[in-house]
Amino acid sequence: MKIELELAAQRLREHDKILILTHKNPDGDTLGSGFGLYYGLKQLGKQVYLRNSDELPAKFSYFYDSQMTAEFEPDYIVSVDVGDTKLLGTKLEQYADKIDLCIDHHVSNTLYAKETYLDGAASSVSEILFFLLELLGIWFDEQIANCLYTGLVTDTGCFKFSNTGVKTHLAAARLIEFGADYERINRDMFETKSFARIALERMVLDGMEFYFDRRCAYVLVTRAMMEEAGADYTTFDGISAITRQIEGVDVGLTLREIGADDYKISVRTSAAVNASELCRKFDGGGHVRAAGCTLKGNIADVKRKLLAAAQEMLGSR
Ligand SMILES: [Mn+2]
């Protein structure tokens, strides 16, 4: 059931032992909103713990609380930025049918939680969290400001994507006022690239293929390429955006081999194509211009299916 933000705030106020769940392969928004909520609830004197199926990436280490302890039985379970229980990952799937509240901005959210606050117009869950913590009367210290600001900028490509709205900028302005270290965060998130990242980008550009009058760009990143570049999934973050930087490209398909005959696909589109709609054909989802799905099978079949779907989407415009 969908609920209003005021009720979500009330639910959080009513509970004292709260577990926060974030999505696998964590990004700046799921961790930024998760830790923003974590520190906000700590301020209210609650016991809080945040979990992820994967190891937490080093680049977000400034979020972490070395004092965080799981030594309590939660009486309330909240998920942030998790559009589907499939995204909880192996370590958290045990909670799939036990989630009390989901706070999300994915239009494809499957409404798996007992109650859901969903704002598909919000740039990020971190944006939602800014207004939620305000309702809870939290004092925004630097730590909370840094967490939420990171989520805002990573999900909007530093305020460049179409999901950036008036509320995004309002929240960001307030977060800067509260001490968000925007210069360092933006440099760390967008400017600084590891050698592994540069090596991977070089391979991606080299192997890029174009279809349908160059309206579709296709990129395949194999495990061998990842290994050669010395890259892990955090290095990969944002690689799919490269396809959309190319003039005339309406659909960017970026495939990452995650196992034998197992591919994770990131779809990036221009205004001409709905990425979420394309991914739904393969049981995936996401946002209008950025969505994802997974496909199993040999690469030739996977590629054929994806290109056919892309062609269909392009043909209908
Ligand atoms: Mn998000």
TrEMBL record:
Domain of life: Bacteria
GO molecular function term, any single one: nucleic acid binding
InterPro entries with a match to the protein in the record: DDH_dom, DHH_sf, DHHA1_dom, Oligoribo/pAp-PDE_c-di-AMP_PDE
Domain DDH: 17-151
Domain annotation DHHA1: ranges: 228-314
Identification of the protein by name: DHHA1 domain protein
Organism: [Clostridium] methylpentosum DSM 5476
Source organism phylogeny: Bacteria, Bacillati, Bacillota, Clostridia, Eubacteriales
